[in-house]
């Protein structure tokens, strides 16, 4: 059966969608200029030439607005990563992971305020942690899972297509094994706990390196963190048995 074409939005609905988009874009500008503590509905309304009460017709609260800004930022970052992944030549998961990791660092180091909202503690000053993370259906949770899925899918493909060394489940610390089992039970694809342990270890190294650079915690030793980041990528390639996929960054 042929599907009927979607009914076009009314003029009023289009205007509302445009206003919602402008509010979120303005909120992002306020975030970059004033930080999360300055991200108040009154500040957003002032920049838009609106009254703060008028914003409540579009967002229920400051928390509601920040939730949607967080979700949009996750989606923006994920779009960047997926575009880099899909343009990789050759399209092998090891090489794609290398390029995606670099794209993640590049976005992070050029979007400090936005990165802090997503991956620092800034958002938790506005939104309850239970609404930001986990397996719920709130906008940040859905968008966050999509972001994490880019990395998890590539590591999963590496394992399924060629394999890499993983610890035996019986060799995992029981407390770690129990937590991994609970986590893996929520995932759409079943992989051995050893694989997920390796994935988590790799993510901690990659994410930790980027966080330390963005938040200035490597300045005691490094003025330029890129060579150290590349060394970490080569080390992760060894862990995942894709060291041969490494290519130096284009100059």
From TrEMBL:
Sample GO molecular function, one term: DNA-binding transcription factor activity
Record keywords, A-Z: DNA-binding, Transcription, Transcription regulation
Residue ranges of every copy of the HTH tetR-type domain listed in the record: 17-77
InterPro entries from the UniProt entry: Homeodomain-like_sf (IPR009057), HTH-type_TetR-like_transc_reg (IPR050109), HTH_TetR (IPR001647), MT1864/Rv1816-like_C (IPR025996), Tet_transcr_reg_TetR-rel_C_sf (IPR036271)
PROSITE patterns in the record: HTH_TETR_2
DNA-binding region: 40-59
PANTHER family xrefs: HTH-TYPE TRANSCRIPTIONAL REGULATOR RUTR (PTHR30055), HTH-TYPE TRANSCRIPTIONAL REGULATOR RV1816 (PTHR30055:SF243)
Name recorded for this polypeptide: Transcriptional regulator, AcrR family
